[in-house]
Amino acid sequence: MKRHRIERHETLIHQVINEYLIREGKSFLKKEFVTIMGIKLSPDLSIALIYISALDNSKSEFVEKAMYDRKKDIKNFISRSIGKKIRKIPDIKFILDSTEHEASRINQILSDLNTSSKK
Fold this sequence. Notes:
Elements: H1 2-29, E1 34-41, E2 47-54, H2 60-69, H3 71-82, E3 91-96, H4 99-118
Parallel strand pairs: 2-3
Antiparallel strand pairs: 1-2
Helix pairs in contact: 1-3
């Protein structure tokens, strides 16, 4: 029962942050494309770990800093959007998720190995 509640909160927060990025992202992210890869809430719902990924991996640090600079605005947006649906608005922490970029790099290495072994 409790896990279901956590998952529901994670989904709500994910939707609200996506909405925030669509509305406000152009102003502070410039032309960088950011994806929310996932959200994990602590069992007491006090901390939300938000996994973000930038399309251009070389801009990841810029994206992370821009998100941290807007952390208070994002939390306020969450509060205004779903404050009546959840009791406590969690503290948010952004974590860069480079899983997609690493997987792509590994696939490229493997495909290079396959093509060189066929020669």
